[in-house]
Amino acid sequence: MPAHPRDHAAPRTARDDAPRLLRARHVAITHEGAHAATPAAATLDVAPGEVVLLLGPSGSGKSTLTLALNGLIPQAIPAAVVGDLEVAGFDVGATPVATLSTRVGMVFQDPDAQLVTGTLLDEVAFGPENLRLPVDEVLGRAEAALRRVGLWERRRENPDRLSGGGRQRLAIACALALGSPLLVLDEPTANLDPRGIDEVYAALADIVAAGDRAILLVEHDLDAAVGLVDRVVVLDADGRLFAEGSTDDVLRTRADELHAMGVWLPVSTLAALRLRAAGYALAPLPLTPAELTAALDAAPSLAPAPTSSPDPISSPLQTRTIGRDADDSGRNVRVSAESPRLDRELRTAGTRRARPATALAATPAVEVRDLTVRRGGTEVLHGIDLDIAAGEFVAIVGANGAGKTTLLQAIAGVIRPPKGSVTVGGTDVARADIRTLARRVGFVFQNPEHQFITHTVFDEVAHGLRLQRLPDDEIRARTAEILARFGLSDKAATHPFLLSGGQKRRLSVGTALVTGAPVLALDEPTFGQDRARADELLALLGDLNTSGTTVLVVSHDMQLVAEHAHRVVVVDDGRIRAAGAPADILSDLDLLESTGLTVPPLARAMTALQRHPSLRRVTRLADLPGGAR
């Protein structure tokens, strides 16, 4: 990932007497019907020009706190708010939302929650128009904002035509156009591909460089965010202030504590914690791939050199490229020029990752033939052919708008293909009824709210079992088991829409798992999760996969792909560009560049090493010495 403009600049720190754009003291928020406040006692400041990163475990109240900053809580969303909360000198509890909106620009976790018009240009102009600005200024602001997020050329299109990542960039443009001195962004890059993440953070760096705006950022992709951040505020599981200080003070010196809390850390930092435990002298603790490479090159070698043993489910798997890039033998074919060193190192490491061919069923779990899908007047999938063997763990990757989600939805029967066929476990998806599909495949939407249909968490999980007309006792037992497994037992009577973002995601995954379908299809399954919950979820998927469940995952997280996938399918412009073992795909720099993808952070650090040859091949945290962390 390219360096941000401020990667090597000293962070700005606010003077003690400097005015605060945001001042929160012991803020506790209790939603209507809830028994406890979340957050319970949040305290933080944001000064002009600062970028403050707000971290905390899932359910600590980060998103709830952001909704209170412009008065949406409690003025639009009923809740009891206690403590002192001021924005730009205004008492939030006594100031109308309309007034606060000119001081706080909001980008929500779900971009669809704030998109209301028929074109991108109208969407971005909507906020300034409501401020009664002159027409020329409205249009000027809208154009500047759309250009910053790379959407100006699509200004006449309907927002519905954008991918999930495109809609998130549009939401950011809407916040930029308001010109508010404080921008509050809740997981702004959660739905973006690696290239889109770079573009957003470059735009945000330009915004704060002038020094007259500040950003409060809730983000789990710290590999992207760390170069932009001045200060870090950490809430504990109850939403109380746990740590506050500069990036060095919090992320470097308290990394072990944050890791134990389940808070996200940069991949390079997680790697360094493992390597330290193995005896490598790494000080200060690295936060970026470049820092990790430099620290390791400066550290003495260990004797004997560390090696990694194969995973119990891993050994070479013959993979193939689908479509015109496959040769007659069906073996994987390079789609573009090789990059010798990276290719050699990653291919060597990657032979451990895939299931043995003998362990896979002869009949595919999923068969896709000549799949063509249109949205409106646009063809988004063009004659896709794909086989997925029973027991595979397949990651589907590609840029925003490439067609990944559409492909996954077609496999799960969420959309019925007008041309071509999709067969899951021998069942034609286009002709199957809902009950039959639920027994064959479990599906998790990118946005969990899009699949909630009942009024309580318990009923949401139980719904799939009721479709199967199981006995009530079995429904109660299996539902309770899922709720306990995902830490939602105390939320059984809560409406799904009142859960935190992370809890909504766990509920959506639980509803897909409860029926025991042999195929699971998940769109960005770790979105909205803290690190501990994400690790638990991925471990659960790994256990199910080991037991024979076929797992399909759409993800922009290339480190997740490197860690867990047996096979990677690259979708580009509605076609399958390549498919193969992670090592083959992730070592092809030309392929990654042309499809908007990047090498995962750990591989970038390891392959750049001048010393420690045994580490150059490592692409997964699980293969590093130092034990599980």
Secondary structure blueprint with pairings:
Elements: E1 22-31, E2 42-46, E3 51-55, H1 62-68, H2 72-75, E4 79-87, E5 90-91, H3 97-100, E6 104-107, H4 120-130, H5 135-148, H6 164-177, E7 182-186, H7 194-209, E8 214-218, H8 222-225, E9 231-235, E10 241-246, H9 247-252, H10 255-261, H11 267-277, H12 289-298, H13 340-350, E11 364-375, E12 378-389, E13 393-397, H14 404-412, E14 419-424, E15 427-428, H15 434-440, E16 441-444, H16 457-467, H17 472-485, H18 501-513, E17 519-523, H19 531-546, E18 550-554, H20 558-564, E19 567-572, E20 575-580, H21 582-586, H22 589-594, H23 601-607, H24 613-616
Parallel strand pairs: 3-8, 3-9, 6-7, 7-8, 13-18, 13-19, 16-17, 17-18
Antiparallel strand pairs: 1-2, 1-4, 4-5, 9-10, 11-12, 11-14, 14-15, 19-20
Helix pairs in contact: 4-5, 4-6, 5-6, 12-23, 16-17, 16-18
Overview of this protein structure:
The structure is a single chain. This protein is an alpha/beta fold. The chain has 3 domains: 22-264, P-loop containing nucleotide triphosphate hydrolases (Rossmann fold, 3-Layer(aba) Sandwich); 271-304 and 601-629, no CATH class; 340-598, P-loop containing nucleotide triphosphate hydrolases (Rossmann fold, 3-Layer(aba) Sandwich), CATH 3.40.50. It is built from 24 helices and 20 strands. Helix 16 runs parallel beside helix 18. The longest helix is centred in the first third of the chain and has 16 residues, at 194-209. Mean pLDDT is 85; it is low at 1-11 and 305-354.
